[in-house]
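Hello,

Our lab assistant flagged a job as stuck in the queue for most of the afternoon. It eventually completed. Since we weren't sure the result was trustworthy after the delay, we are filing this so someone can double-check. Below is the sequence as submitted and the structure that was eventually returned. Let us know if re-running is recommended.
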Amino acid sequence: MSGTGYRAIVLTGITVCVLTGCTNNSEPDSTTPISTQTPPTATPTFADPDEPVGPPLTAPTQETATPDETTPEAELESEEDLASGAAELAILDFHTVMDRLFSDPELELEELDEVAMGQAWISVHESVQDARAAGRIRTGESTVHGFEVIDHDLDPDQPEEGVAPRRIVVRGCLVTHNGDEVYFQYLLHDTSGSEDYHWRVVVDEPVFTDDDPPEPEPCP
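-- returned structure --
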């Protein structure tokens, strides 16, 4: 047996003793040569750099602003947009109801209650009754475009009794049932007391110039 093979047997025996726990108390055989050669050093192993070590890392969560964290300026702008949009729809509904009342003698005048109040309600109510009494039926549809908010009070001081209405003033170009264009101004109130807007037209009248005598102001 060569010297290399002999040393391999000795090292194998040492390894087995380490693993199984050899307890031989006998004296070593004097005839057995003892290897003085240093056993080979084990090569250290390193983790694969491509393998993940430990729990997976997660990206930090970014905090995003919620709608409740908006600035007062943004809230005010949003409230104005909401109010003006609802007012435009209310004006269109007002003219739709008015057209129907003039074209359908059988339609109940109570339809006007949902879209008008005050001076506008009285004016339209009397005009419809006069037209029906004379047997006049008006055809065609009216519409409004080019809305512009002139003034508003969306959070009025409330009195001790009653309710102070929210108010908004809107101008727009009225295209009448016969095709004429007239620059109109509308005052609307909301007395519902709810968070949503329920505008009703209080005043609808043409816009006049400052001339003497005043002339109807043309649509922009």
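-- support follow-up --
The delay was a queue issue, not a problem with the job. The result is valid. The CA atoms of residues 140 and 178 lie 7 Å apart. The first strand starts at residue 143 and ends at 153.
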